[in-house]
TrEMBL record:
Signal peptide (from-to): none
Start and end residues of each Protein kinase domain: 1-337
GO molecular function: ATP binding; protein kinase activity
Lineage of origin: Eukaryota, Sar, Alveolata, Ciliophora, Intramacronucleata
Protein name, as recorded: Protein kinase domain-containing protein
Top-level division of the source organism's lineage: Eukaryota
One Pfam family cited in the UniProt record for this chain: Pkinase
């Protein structure tokens, strides 16, 4: 809340000054009760320009504190005073008397490895909390991270930008909109010139991005800052010497990647984690989960490398589940590789970078230890182990199924491109020839025929004269009452989804598709129906909304109280829906041949993340089927499961394939139980590592054989 200056003095004085920030108009005090007080001075013109943004900054920081009190510092009060052409603004933070900014805490204390990891985990948590709410801080520095009583809290949102987001405060009875506008310093960097003009000292905590930065790099900016801070707290180096500061006049993450590589080699227990941030393909969430897994997977000393060989299931990385991502854990059998072994692998590359680019003045690698062939194999396995997103499993190294160029030309899209401001999809379904080539399971003729029809679109059923577009039914019968449901409203707005669905009919059903009458509308507490009718009951095509706790919207072909064909939308979870294509019996239960599509609401866009083609009985998927998993952050990567289902879960024999850049590779062949690897399985990792093992509840229970290329690898 805002106080006048007299109220401020009465409540918080006397206050003792503890620091004066160098080259700044900011003073730091401690109140008589122990609160931290920050005093900033503005000219009259500056305050007129910044006052409204300043208020919004305080409100934003307190909203974040309300949701994540352990991640964001709370502002208790603020006050302003005008004197001698200057505006004095005072901000009072929550009681943090013994707090220190992260830079001072790291420099002044001896910190154990366990505590260091805990600090890094909290920093990552802060980054993810910001990204979930589409907030870009743009000034994350060690001095804006406050350490107190074991918690790291972020403050100073003066440079932040919020992208079209509504925030809900539990203190209010309804949602309120908060919009914040971006302001920055006109200089991108503050360079401190030294007496030796040949060398300049860049203080990273003074980096300020200018207002010309584009939206698309705001998130990269925060990730870059977080990566840099992690390097700084590990190395206790809070300034880095460079030779050409002009290189920093454009946003570039190259230097932070180079530093991360050096940290990775100096601190082997962070090897996997550092590579995640270097590659920046998986984002903060995967890095966070990986670090959690490293610290919790074994009671062994964290000073040794304990890389996890592979993920439990590559699909888990792309499905947002409530539980933490599971990983395959080689029980008590880790590859321990020394620091020197890792340094040798990187020595050539680091030497080239240090001498050709001269970007960072760092000490060269002096390790000259040699390693034998077996250790080289282990080191190569380790390097493959960190890149968990590209996990490959196959039965035999020579049996990897690749599609040649002519086959790739025959592939065609069953899923249309869906575009949003941030995402673009390209979902590919195999033709019949390619499908048969990768199929190794015996499937009864009915199942195989149905699946083939939906992969190879060449029969009479798919000719234009025998189909009715879903978009046509929507134009005829869509009811405005359907728009009261937010998910249905998004479905209606996204016309690109409508084009994916259509009814196919043969001559025996043509009378229902071509039947026309006056439009019947039925509305009561249980349902809304709008469509064609006969004797005042639904007949022909129409739309029915069933009003239950788990609502259903059915686009159907109605006859004699049955729905002969249907496209049904149901709410799957809070922000996701499933679209079912198939038959509904007299009890409106799904049965027979079916196609499912699952969509998730992301940034007000429905994005497809799964597809299933197979059989269903009493609302449970069973028998042989094909399940496709789409990864919408990496549109060129899909996963395809072919095998048996029971109770809507992968159960029994199955094969898992990975599709990337048009290539299809078998990555696992074995037994599944309740969606997890179970029983004997054959796997292939990164095309060179063959694993045969017994799995239990998704984890490796016992190795049978482990080979790198054609060489056996010692496990110890």
């Amino acid at each position: 809340m805002k106080l006048n200056y007299d109220q401020f003095v009465k409540k918080y004085f006397p206050a003792q000054q503890i620091t004066n920030l160098k080259e700044s108009s900011t003073l730091i005090f401690v109140s008589k009760q122990g609160q931290i007080i920050k005093e900033q001075n503005f000219t009259e013109n500056e305050w007129l320009l910044w006052r409204e943004h300043f208020r919004q900054e305080i409100e934003l920081q307190n909203i974040l504190n309300e949701y994540e009190p352990n991640y964001f510092l709370k502002i208790l009060d603020w006050a302003e005073e005008f004197q001698e052409q200057l505006h004095k603004v005072l901000i009072i933070y929550e009681n943090q008397k013994d707090s220190q900014n992260l830079e001072l805490y790291i420099k002044n204390n001896t910190i154990s490895q366990e505590k260091l990891i805990n600090i890094i985990i909290q920093i990552l948590g802060i980054g993810m909390a910001l990204q979930r709410r589409k907030i870009f801080h743009l000034n994350i520095t060690p001095k804006n991270l406050i350490y107190v009583n074991g918690f790291i809290k972020l403050t100073d949102f003066g440079s932040s930008r919020v992208i079209h987001k509504q925030y809900y405060s539990q203190k209010y009875s309804e949602e309120r909109n908060y919009y914040y506008h971006f302001y920055q310093s006109t200089s991108m960097l503050k360079i401190k010139m030294k007496e030796n003009l040949e060398e300049q000292d860049l203080l990273f905590q003074e980096i300020v991005q200018n207002e010309l930065l584009q939206n698309q790099i705001f998130q990269q900016n925060d990730e870059w800052s977080l990566s840099l801070i992690i390097c700084q707290i590990i190395t206790k180096q809070f300034d880095i010497k460079i030779k050409h500061y002009e290189d920093f006049f454009c946003f570039n993450s190259f230097r932070i990647k180079e530093m991360m590589k050096q940290v990775r080699n100096s601190f082997p227990h962070f090897y996997i984690f550092c590579n995640k941030l270097i590659e920046q393909r998986l984002g903060l969430k995967v890095a966070y989960n990986t670090l959690i897994e490293i610290t919790s997977s074994s009671k062994a000393s964290i000073s040794k490398i304990k890389p996890l060989i592979m993920r439990l299931d590559p699909l888990n990385n792309y499905l947002e589940r409530e539980q933490a991502t599971k990983m395959i854990e080689v029980a008590k059998n880790y590859y321990y590789v020394s620091k020197a072994e890792i340094q040798i692998q990187e020595e050539g590359q680091i030497y080239y970078q240090l001498n050709s680019n001269n970007l960072l003045t760092t000490a060269p690698n002096n390790s000259k230890k040699s390693i034998d062939d077996e250790k080289q194999h282990k080191l190569q396995i380790l390097h493959q182990g960190y890149n968990l997103i590209n996990t490959f499993f196959v039965r035999e190294p020579l049996s990897v199924n690749k599609l040649n160029n002519s086959q790739l030309k025959q592939l065609h899209l069953n899923e249309k491109k869906q575009q949003s401001p941030k995402f673009q999809h390209q979902h590919t379904i195999r033709d019949l020839q390619s499908f048969k080539e990768i199929s190794g399971s015996e499937v009864n003729s009915m199942q195989q025929s149905f699946i083939n029809q939906n992969i190879y679109r060449d029969s009479i059923l798919y000719k234009k004269s025998n189909q009715l577009k879903l978009a046509t039914i929507i134009q005829l019968f869509w009811d405005q009452d359907f728009m009261q449901n937010y998910l249905l409203k998004q479905f209606y707005i996204q016309s690109s989804i409508h084009g994916e669905y259509e009814f196919k009919f043969n001559n025996s059903q043509s009378h229902l598709f071509n039947y026309k009458s006056k439009i019947l509308r039925i509305q009561d507490k249980k349902q809304i129906y709008q469509g064609y009718e006969k004797d005042n009951i639904p007949y022909g095509i129409g739309i029915k909304l069933i009003r239950e706790k788990n609502w259903k919207l059915i686009f159907g072909v109605f006859e004699n109280d049955q729905i002969l064909q249907s496209i049904m939308i149901e709410q799957n979870k809070q922000r996701s829906i499933q679209i079912y294509q198939g038959k509904l019996n007299e009890n409106q239960m799904k049965e027979g041949q079916c196609i499912f599509d699952w969509f998730r609401l992301v940034n007000n866009n429905l994005l497809k993340y799964q597809k299933h083609i197979g059989l269903i009985k009493q609302n449970k998927i069973y028998g042989y089927g094909v399940r496709i998993y789409y990864e919408y952050f990496h549109s060129q990567i899909n996963f395809i499961y072919k095998g048996n289902f029971e109770n809507s879960q992968k159960q029994g024999k199955g094969q898992l394939f990975k599709e990337q850049d048009g290539n299809l590779d078998l990555i696992f062949d074995g037994e599944f139980k309740q969606d997890q690897y179970s029983g004997v399985g054959l796997a292939y990792f990164q095309k060179d590592l063959t694993i045969q093992a017994t799995f239990l509840e998704g984890k490796i229970n016992q190795f049978s054989e482990l080979k790198y290329k054609e060489h056996s690898v010692t496990i110890f």
